[in-house]
Amino acid sequence: MWAEVDVALARFSEKRFPVGAVDVLQRGHIEGPIFTPDDWGGYLIYRLYPVARVVADDRHDLYGEQFFKNYLKLVRVEPGWEKVLQDNHAIWVLVPVNSALGGTLVERTNWIVVYRDDVAILLEKKSGF
């Protein structure tokens, strides 16, 4: 028989996961969609489900090859990256603080920094697509 586990007791490293940023999302009752790197997607699902939706997580086989190509275009800030955000209706972006995408969005006037720490930066799009 399986032992009952209290998932609320699970702890995640604040040096590896965007714990502080997700606390902000949780307190704000943000529904998403939220773009985050695939390796953080599962963590966001764990913390925010069923309220918020993430654009991607690390289950690449569920999304298909074209989705993954678009994902890479976005995280690498390659031509067409803005359309990927638009197509996914992502008005929230949560990325590593030193990422190319985070650095690019900080320079844009239509994105505002909502939260930043040593691990992550959380940005919100000011207006619709």
Question: What's the Cα radius of gyration?
Answer: 15 Å
Number of structural units classed as domains:
1
Q: State mean pLDDT (0 to 100 scale).
A: 90
Bin the helical content.
Answer: 25-40%
Biggest sheet layout: 4 strands, mixed
What is the general shape?
Answer: globular
What is the end-to-end distance?
A: 50 Å
Runs with pLDDT <50, length 5+?
Answer: 1-7
Which class best fits the helix and strand makeup? alpha+beta
Tally of individual helices: 6
Written as H for each helix and E for each strand, in order along the chain, the element string is HEHHHHEHEE
Number of strands: 4
State which percent range the strand residues make up. Answer: 5-15%
* Spatial ordering of strands, largest sheet: 1-2-4-3
Topology:
Elements: H1 19-27, E1 34-35, H2 38-48, H3 60-63, H4 65-75, H5 81-87, E2 92-96, H6 100-107, E3 111-116, E4 120-125
Parallel strand pairs: 1-2
Antiparallel strand pairs: 2-4, 3-4
Helix pairs in contact: 4-5
